[in-house]
Amino acid sequence: MPGRAARILLGGLFGLFLLFLYGPTITIGILSFQGPDGGLTFPMNGASLHWFAQLFQPQAVGDLGAAMRRTLALAAMVTASTVVISLLAGMAFRRRFRGSGAVFYLTIASLIVPSILVSLGIGLLFNQMEWEPAWYSSAFGAQLTWTLPFGLLIMFAVFNRFDRSWEEAARDMGATPWQSFRHVVLPIIAPSVVGIALFGFTLSFDEFARTLLTAGSGNTLPLEILGMTTTVTTPVLYALGTVSTAVSFLVIGGAILGVRLLGRRRGAAPEARGSAPGTPPGG
Amino acid sequence: MPRLFPWLQTAPLLAVLLVFLVVPLAMLVVVSFYDYDSFSLIPDFVLTNYQEVFTSAVTWRTYLKTLWFAGLTWLVTLGLGFWLAYFLAFVVRSPAWRMVLFVLTTVPFWTSNLIRMIAWVPFLGRNGILNNGLLAVGAIDRPLEFLLFSDFAVILAFVHLYTLFMVVPIFNTMMRIDRRLLEAARDAGAGFWQALWCVILPLSKPGIGIGSIFVVVLVMGDFATVRLMSGGQSASVGLMISNQIGLMQYPAAAANAVVLLAMVLLLVSAMLRAIDIRKEL
After folding, report:
1. Closest approach of chain A CAs to the CA of B53, in angstroms?
2. Chain A contact set for B10 (CB, 8 A)
């Protein structure tokens, strides 16, 4: 074990890292309340909600309301599909079957291919097929190639630690496969399923590289932000950043709170080990 | 019937991956051989797009620059990520605190990468917080210009965005190291560095491998960070591709995409030789 001095040093490093991680985000949070004459940096020139009001004036920036609705709808679709598809595939992968290796490596490949290439490939495919790209078709698929590998990896992590004797007990008591899934497996893995949902939502809500060439005529919020970074030089950009961060925190916080309450109502919350919501890659 | 079950269960996954990954990538390869003019793609089989990639000095420099970004970011995130994970796994004793600190490092992942990049502007700019602070204490007498819109800013942003991808897998493998091994090492007379080098480091290798794959792949394919943080003064392959897309030079972009993909796959397969990910989940 490291000595006292080393422990303090490492603690200091960790503290500095947290500052490094949060400092900038907190700064733009503060700066988005800049007064109407304020600039992109300190000092604050008064405090106001001016830039938030600007956000909702169509002439200042694009139609942000529509972009926000589109982004949330897309994130909801991606989240639901990611949960269902990775849950199904995760169940299948509990046993080896012919072709399981190939599907596994294909899924990993999906994680490794750079986002912009997926975007370009799908864009070209739709272009050559003369299909109209749209957020609910091409962008939806493009995002799934990113969220599904994460979902599947989380399922792997869960089932590698899953105690099969619960299912055997259910079967011995005469449960059908569906009953044992519905009443035994699903309740045990529920927290991880919520984790997959949160992952899917976060990845989708913030994605821009994969939607760049696949969103068609209707921009999503991250694409609006990407466009604004080169054209907008007022704190309205910070206001948009703050709003986007707030929405994503509200949804995620709400989900975690919901699970907590649900778990409490059911009595003992089944905590599957190693599956805290929001546990990123490598689960 | 039950024998068909696994296939039915993986069918949706496979369908999505085929339609939105395999076919589009095949499309990229096909289009990389197409000819084009300023209005349209011309189906053909020409090698000019690849010739341009391999014979242009600018393109070579861009590829080297991308590798340089990836290498440097990898070194910094690995150095930082390893010690942060070490702190969480071995220095923090209380599980509750460990959980709180771990969650604190993952929370920023819930915010948009773009916003986290923009957030550096008021910090690093000419009249930014850092320059003003340094001026005020008299450390410098004129604003540092290299802070924003430079390679420094690009690397800083990469480290800011991707260190998490290193911390989480390394922390995950470290937590699974049997603590008795460390006691045994100490009983056998190993000091701190010896235990680190001979016990902890080898056993953390899988986590380091997974983290490295994430960081390298994310940096290699990036275009937005380089564009925003270098202010157009630096280039990466991803940015070059996105510029070519902007100019509607799809076959040229596709050729670069194919070369980039080959490079990424080579790098990843080299890293995968060191670890078996499937065992690590």
Report:
1. 16
2. 88-89, 92-93, 100, 103
Evaluate if residue A281 carries a pLDDT over 70. no
State phi, psi for A235 to the nearest 5 degrees: -65, 0
A9 assigned to some structural domain: no
Do A276 and B257 count as a contact with CB atoms less than 8 A apart? no
Residues near A17 by beta carbon (within 8 Å), at least 6 away in sequence:
B80, B84, B105, B163
Number of domains in chain A: 1
What is the rounded distance in angstroms from the CA atom of residue A213 to the CA atom of residue A220?
A: 12
Residues of chain A in contact with residue B264, where contact means CB-CB under 8 angstroms, are 112-114
* CA–CA separation, A43 and B81 (whole Å): 34
Indicate whether A42 belongs to any domain: no
Q: Give the bridge partners for B41, in sequence order.
A: B36
Residue A47 β-bridge partners: A34
Average pLDDT over residues B90-117: 85
List, for residues B116-172, the tens digit of each pLDDT value. Answer: 888 888 888 777 778 888 888 877 877 777 788 889 999 999 999 999 999 999 998
**Using a CB-CB distance cutoff of 8 angstroms, which residues of chain B are in contact with residue A122?**
20, 24
Contact status, residue A35 vs residue A50, Cβ threshold 8 Å: yes
Domains and CATH numbers, chain B: 46-280 (1.10.3720.10)
Q: Which of A198, A2, A91, A232 lies closest to B107, judged by CA?
A: A198
Cα separation, A206 vs A178, in Å, equals 36
In a 10 Å sphere around its CB, with 0-12 CB exposed, 13-18 middle and 19+ buried, how is residue B48 labelled?
middle
Whether A170 has its CB under 8 Å from any CB of chain B: the answer is no
Give the pLDDT mean for A127-151: 91
Which residues are within 8 A (CB) of A186 and not within 5 positions of it... i.e. 6 or more apart? A193
> Which residues constitute the domain of residue A83?
48-265
Of A24, A103, A144, the CB nearest to B119: A24
Residue A11 lies in a domain: no
- Whether A36 is covered by a domain: the verdict is no
Q: What is the CATH number of the domain that holds A192?
A: 1.10.3720.10
For residue B41, CA distances in Å to A122, A124, A126, A128, B20 come to 16, 10, 13, 9, 21
Q: Which parts of chain A are beta strand (E)? A: none
d(CA A203, CA A147): 7
The helix/strand count (H/E) of chain A reads as 11, 0
